[in-house]
Please model this.
Amino acid sequence: MAVSDAAASTRAVKDTAKLFSARMATAAFSVFFTGWLLRLIPTEELAVWPIAVALAAAVEALASLGMGDTFVRRIPRYLAEGKRDDAGALLRTGVLLNVAACAVATALLTINPRWTAQHLIGDASHTAIVSSLAAMVFLAAVDKRLHWGLTATQQFGRIAVLDLFSRVARMPLAVALYVHYGLSGLLVAFAIVPGASCVVTLVLLWPYMRRCHGFAPVGGLLRFSAAYYGVSILGFMRGRAQYLVIGILSSPEVLSLYFVASKVSDYLRELGGFGIGVVTPKLAERGGTSPEERPRILQQCSRYLLLIMLPMHVAVAVLAVPIVRVYAGADYAGAGAILSVLAAYTWLQLAYDLHRAHIQVYAPPVHLLMLQAISAGVDLLTMATLVVLLGALGAAVAKLITYALLNVVAGALLARTMPLRYDLQALRSALFAGALLALACYGVAALAPRASIAVLTGSILGTAAYTAALRGRVSVRDLDLLFGALPGRVRDGRPVTLLKSMASRWLMPEAKVATATAGDGAT
Model:
């Protein structure tokens, strides 16, 4: 029996809310310790942090073998069709292949520690930390690979808990170990937390893997995943490889400046990325039974991408300088301009990820491979050119140009598979409301005497201006989905009921008039 559009939308919003709530609950905590750590690490040592992140991403990409995209495309359908043995065999085989590949890729880093320190870290004197680097890279890569299994089996509540654990434990541990042991301690901290996450994730996936007998045919699985493997490699080239490019073409100081700005934009990116991660398996689950609904699903997703995510990115872009000063200190105030550009880029990236999710689920795998090849080529070319000309700001501008182009290309490819439909009314509303929000935030940023006051006051006034601008531009369904994301006991409580009633009266004045008219008629 097919799930109704309303039920699927409500379930997707609830799953997104679990992940979003976990991120919001830990954001202030992790931001505090990350900011503390940024103030402790000298600029020349800080550059080792993004290099380590880039190497972990490289191992993750090399070891992916395309399994993650195959998981998301096949496992939800197998489970929906009752084929639990097929789902378990695929999961078991993919996990073993990924772990073995991570071990091989990481081993290459430790064959010659001096070469690794000289050419990857940039300082031959850092040979002592290569073993810590290898442990961190291996466990971080395996953790990312295993999370694809949780996403495919739609264990979003457990992903939220694991994310909560990672965010709460990692940064305090990193601060403590860095203070006592320097860079080696920092890398060990970054290894301990994903190591624990790997163990828990394997326990959560075990009920699915133990129900099957044997393994999925490796040859056929690798052939099907080949295109996705290319996608993974190219995704790294247009993603974390940016740190390697900047590090090679510039100085550690430039890389550190870009890294600080990108850390803030990563928080912004992850908030929206959770929603896309939830939507993708839902598309796979429903795509085989309701192909006529695909354009409507795209339209609905575009509505909330505009109405919910756009104002957050606008506010960060306008308040970028005070945000950076509060986050990392006055020494990194120059990263504010970089963050403004990255805030615009991350919204374009979310729009691209929405297109990519539909291509991943509905289009032939070669379309996704083509898209990644174009994005990797354009990203590396524009970044290498603009970093030389503009330094760290050039890297941010390169990202903005790349994703503006990618949205056009992704839309053209997706149009070959399904009709494209976007919510243009939401676009007009978001542009109008976003402009008012930007004016409110800009005025506060220009007049506030301190960065912390600018961030706090600008956020409050910006939110008020945006909400006022949306009056009469949202629907009952919008509010039902928003409040429906709350847990049942909270949603049905009197405070939330009153809040929803007030929001309805303010945002939808026509509903108030309709209610009054109905009451007069009844009288």
